[in-house]
């Protein structure tokens, strides 16, 4: 039994089911929440219909807790994904870029078959 449990744990670690936040993104989210002056905010990530590819990402701060929310913790930051968005975001990695050619949050989503050039929408 111990061997099976170890194998299942290893497989689960190889196939992430939640949203991952890089250390850089977690630090940026934490700094933005501190600027708001509130300690009850969490980063909510959702998928909504729209955009040129069919679905659009939404990232915003939220104090609400909704039925079916999935909550992940990264670097002291809580990331919340609603029940409907979770399958679209399983294994997605959120990073923050601050370069001359790109600034803002980026999402590397293994579930996106096609995305537009702007990176805001996918299908």
From TrEMBL:
GO terms for biological process: iron-sulfur cluster assembly. Residues 21-120 form the Core domain. One of its GO terms (molecular function) is 2 iron, 2 sulfur cluster binding. This is Core domain-containing protein. It comes from Spirilliplanes yamanashiensis.
């Amino acid at each position: 039994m111990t061997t099976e449990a170890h194998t299942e744990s290893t497989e689960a670690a190889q196939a992430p089911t939640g949203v991952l936040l890089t250390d850089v993104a977690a630090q940026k989210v934490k700094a933005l929440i501190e600027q708001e002056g509130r300690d009850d905010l969490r980063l909510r990530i959702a998928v909504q219909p729209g955009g040129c590819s069919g679905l659009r990402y939404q990232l915003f701060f939220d104090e609400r807790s909704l039925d079916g929310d999935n909550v992940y913790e990264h670097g002291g930051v809580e990331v919340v994904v609603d029940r409907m968005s979770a399958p679209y975001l399983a294994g997605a990695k959120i990073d923050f870029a601050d370069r001359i050619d790109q600034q803002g949050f980026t999402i590397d989503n293994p579930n996106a078959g096609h995305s537009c050039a702007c990176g805001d929408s996918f299908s």
